[in-house]
Amino acid sequence: MKKKHSTLYTVIQFSFILLLALFLRVFVLTPVEVVGISMEPTYHESDRLWQSSFLNPKRFDVATFPSPRDGKRIVKRIVGLPGDTIRMENDQLYINDKKYDEPYLDEFKNALTDGNPLTTDFTLKNSATAPATVVPEGKYFVLGDNRRKTDDSRYFGFVDKEAIVGVVYFRYYPLNKIGVQ
């Protein structure tokens, strides 16, 4: 009788550990691979990231969601929250008419030699989000960091809050760039 009890206890423990590992894998340690160059210089092709679906997206967080173009998971930076006005003027981001620095773009901006801005001027009204002038409730405005070579809200419109799969919080590959994001 004692052997049967011990085996049952072991099976229950193993099942609990397996469920906990599955829970962590799905909701807390969800791996993401960066595909493409749209988030350079922040993230590069084949960088490996962890995301969490428990984190509420905030301004300037990097989030993942299915591409409105083909449904593949993509990585972009959340710039506009519901109720925001967004515009870019002379390579300067304005949210609700307030200037915002984007230090994550400094590397790219400093490397430019052609005299053109990293980000061309735009407003919500003259982007794919037209005729909207503010980010609607339940939506986000996202941008890739590689502003010249990215498909983002300027071209495919707003991203639904429900479409956000997770918020990136850790890079685990390449090893020389490992760390909290």
DSSP summary: helix tally: 3
Principal-axis shape equals elongated
> Unreliable stretches, pLDDT < 50, 5 or more residues?
none
Strand content: 25-35%
Q: Helical proportion?
A: 10-25%
Distance between the termini: 53 Å
Average pLDDT figure: 90
- The tally of strands reads 12
Biggest beta-sheet profile: 8 strands, antiparallel
Structural class: alpha+beta
Helix-strand sequence: HEEEEEEEHEEHEEE
Alpha carbon gyration radius: 20 Å
Descriptive report:
By secondary structure, the protein is of the alpha+beta class. The protein is 20% helix and 29% strand. Strands 1, 2, 3, 4, 9, 10, 11 and 12 form an eight-stranded antiparallel beta sheet that branches. Strands 7-6-5-8 form a four-stranded antiparallel beta sheet, with no helix packed on it. A hairpin with a 2-residue loop joins β6 (92-95) and β7. The longest helix is centred in the first third of the chain and has 27 residues, at 2-28. The relative contact order is 0.19. The mean pLDDT is 90.
Brief descriptors of the model:
181 residues; 4-stranded antiparallel β-sheet; single chain; 20% helix
Produce a short descriptive summary.
By secondary structure, this protein is α+β, with helices and mostly antiparallel strands. It is 20% helix and 29% strand. Strand 11 and strand 12 (179-180) form a beta hairpin.
